[in-house]
Amino acid sequence: MPGTGRTWRLEFLGRDHARVHRGAGSGPPIDLSVRHSELLLLLAMHPAGLSADRIAVLLHEHDVPSVTIRAELNRLRRILGPESIGSRPYRLLVPVQTDIDDVTVSLNGGRVAAALQAYAGTLMPSSGSPAVTDLRESLRSQLRRAALAASDVEALLGYAATVEGGEDMAVLAAALQRLPPDSPRRPALEARLGLLN
Questions:
Q1: pLDDT tens string 79-89
Q2: Residue partners of 141: CB distance under 8 A and separation at least 6
Q3: Which of 54, 73, 158, 183 fits a disulfide with 50 by CB distance 3.0 to 4.6 angstroms?
Q4: DSSP three-state, residue 13
Q5: Pairing state between β 91-92 and 85-86
């Protein structure tokens, strides 16, 4: 990927607005609007690039003119710098690492505890974009399955401590089943299950 060679850090989890860290000496982190956050997420998830028409489909359930998408991408380029986004197709020109990558790499390596530690919260919870919604649900589902499949009760308790896991009766019940009868953590889990029933 062309660019400065400095890897940017992109944070999307547990926040509505993406935060961009461009590296030492590049100034403070940049918090983007929801729309620009959605665009940046799509570009980060599709390193080979996307056309404006494809971005429009991924971002909206209803038809949006590609000229609108191009205008928003130009605004995003002005915010992030001229070296940040290429066109034809639209793609990131700098190497990036995301907090989503941290979670998925840990999950793919079977490190459930590390994945849960890296999971800072729901992916852009206020976004209604179809692509973001799909990615949000996929990440949640992967974490849930990994926690339920783990032999360690701590994985279940870790997932139960997330926003999504805290209201998941199957996860709470599985954690309760695996805890020893005299565990001091049982009463809190029993109370949460009682509230959900």
A1: 999 889 999 89
A2: none
A3: 54
A4: strand
A5: antiparallel
